[in-house]
From TrEMBL:
Function: Site-specific tyrosine recombinase, which acts by catalyzing the cutting and rejoining of the recombining DNA molecules.
Transmembrane segments: none
GO biological process per UniProt: DNA integration; DNA recombination
Protein name: Site-specific integrase
Lineage summary: Bacteria, Bacillati, Bacillota, Clostridia, Lachnospirales
Length: 382
C-alpha cells in the first residue's frame, strides 16, 4: 500500500486487501458507480472520468448502449463542436432516412461486421455511391468514437467493404428549350431573380440565399461566394462554403449585373414600404434576397415554388420532369460545356475541390461534346 494510511485515503476510495487494488465509489441519483485502479492516483483519475460520463449522459454500463442513443451523443458532443452546421444536417438527414430503421434499437456491442456489410449491399441496389459514402462516414465515425470511449472493444465498420456498384444517380439537366420555357413561366413569380442567377452562375441554393451585398462587386463585375445559408434546430446560420474551393470568385454576366442592380433598387423600395415591418434577423441585415419582412428565404419554400412552376407547365399539357434547385447548377455547367468552357475553368466556377469531381459529374455531356469536336476533323480526310 502507498504512503496513505487506510484511514487517510481520499473520499470514496478504499483499499482491497484481497487483490491489492484500490476501489473508487460514488453515488449519483441514488445509484452506485464503481471503478478500480492499481494506485490511488489512477483510481482518482478513473473516478473523475466516470463521474463526468455519468453526469453528462455518456456512460454506458457494460456496452449496453443502443446505436440510436449513441448516435445522438456522438453527434451532439463530438461532431457539432467540430464540423459545419450543414454537415450536421446532412448526417441527421441520412441517419433518419437510411440508417435509423436498421440500427437504431440494436445494442452497439451486438452489431457485427457482416450486418454492416449486408446493409451496404442492400443500399447499393437502390442508392448512389455518394449516399453510401455518407452512411459509412456516419457509422464509422460513431463506432470509432465508441471504441475510443471504451464503450465497445472494436469497430465493426472497419472490415466492411463498400460496394463499388452503387446505383448511379441520374443528373437532371434542362435542355435549352426547357430552360427557356421554365424562365418564361417563372418570369412574374417571387423567386425569378434567384432562378436566373442560379442559371447564370452555377451557385448552390444556400450560396444564393446567403448572398450578401458585400459579396457583390459591380466595379469588378464579380461575385465573391464566401458563405452559405443553413437552417438547423429552428435557427438560421451563415456557414462557410461546402469546401475550401467553394470560396470563389464568379465573373458576372451582363444579365446578372442588371438583375442585381434592379434587385438593389427593389429592396430599397421594399424597406421603405414595409417600414417597421421590415425586420431582418440579427446578422442577416445585408442579404441580397429576402422575404417580404427582410428575413432569409426558406430552403423548403424555395423548392416548393419551383415545384409549383413545373406543375403549371404540366397543366398546359407539356411534359416537364421535376427539377430541384440543384438542377439549375447542373444546367449551368452543361451550358458551359456546350459552349466550350474548359473543364478546369468550370471546376473553379463551380467550386469543386478537384477536376475529377467535375469530370465525373458531367462525363455524359463531355462525351457528347467530344464526339462533336472530333467530327470537325472529318474534313481533313474527306
Amino acid at each position: 500500500m502507498s504512503s496513505y494510511k487506510k484511514n487517510a485515503l481520499p473520499k470514496g476510495i478504499t483499499y482491497r486487501e484481497n487483490d491489492g487494488r484500490y476501489m473508487g465509489r460514488f453515488m449519483y441519483h441514488g445509484e452506485s458507480f464503481t471503478t478500480y485502479g492499481k494506485t490511488i492516483k489512477e483510481t482518482q483519475k478513473k473516478m473523475e472520468t466516470l463521474r463526468y460520463e455519468v453526469e453528462h449522459g455518456i456512460y454506458f454500463k457494460n456496452g449496453n448502449a443502443t446505436f440510436g442513443s449513441w448516435f445522438e451523443i456522438w453527434l451532439r458532443d463530438y461532431k457539432e463542436p467540430s464540423v459545419k452546421m450543414g454537415t450536421i444536417t446532412v448526417y441527421r438527414q441520412n441517419y433518419n432516412a437510411y440508417i435509423k430503421k436498421t440500427f437504431e434499437k440494436r445494442q452497439l456491442r451486438d452489431i457485427r461486421t457482416d450486418q454492416i456489410q449486408r446493409f451496404y449491399n442492400e443500399m447499393a441496389k437502390d442508392y448512389s455511391h455518394n449516399t453510401l459514402e455518407i452512411c459509412r462516414a456516419i457509422l464509422n465515425g460513431a463506432f470509432m468514437q465508441a471504441v475510443r470511449n471504451e464503450v465497445i472493444q472494436r469497430n465493426p465498420v472497419s472490415n466492411a467493404v463498400l460496394p463499388r456498384n452503387g446505383k448511379k444517380k441520374e443528373v437532371r439537366v434542362m435542355t435549352i428549350e426547357e430552360q427557356t420555357l421554365f424562365l418564361e413561366y417563372a418570369h412574374n413569380t417571387e423567386y425569378f431573380p434567384l432562378y436566373e442567377l442560379a442559371l447564370s452562375t452555377g451557385m448552390r441554393s444556400g450560396e444564393i440565399r446567403g448572398l450578401q451585398w458585400s459579396d457583390v462587386n459591380f466595379n469588378d463585375k464579380a461575385i465573391h461566394v464566401s458563405s452559405t445559408l443553413t437552417y438547423q434546430n429552428g435557427a438560421y446560420y451563415m456557414g462557410t462554403p461546402k469546401t475550401t474551393s467553394s470560396d470563389r470568385i464568379i465573373p458576372m454576366l451582363n444579365n446578372v449585373i442588371r438583375l442585381l442592380k434592379q434587385r438593389k433598387k427593389e429592396q430599397a423600395k421594399e424597406r421603405l414600404m414595409m417600414g417597421s415591418y421590415w425586420n431582418p434577423l440579427e446578422g442577416f441585415e445585408n442579404l441580397v434576397f429576402t422575404n417580404s419582412a427582410g428575413r432569409p428565404i426558406n430552403r423548403d419554400r424555395f423548392k416548393i415554388a419551383i415545384d409549383d412552376i413545373v406543375k403549371e407547365i404540366c397543366k398546359d399539357g407539356i411534359d416537364f420532369k421535376r427539377i430541384t434547385p440543384h438542377t439549375f447548377r447542373h444546367t449551368f455547367a452543361t451550358r458551359c460545356i456546350e459552349n466550350n468552357v474548359t473543364p478546369k475553368v468550370l471546376q473553379t466556377i463551380l467550386g469543386h475541390n478537384d477536376l475529377a469531381t467535375t469530370m465525373d459529374t458531367y462525363v455524359h455531356v463531355l462525351k457528347d461534346t467530344k464526339e462533336t469536336e472530333m467530327q470537325k476533323l472529318a474534313c481533313l480526310f474527306s
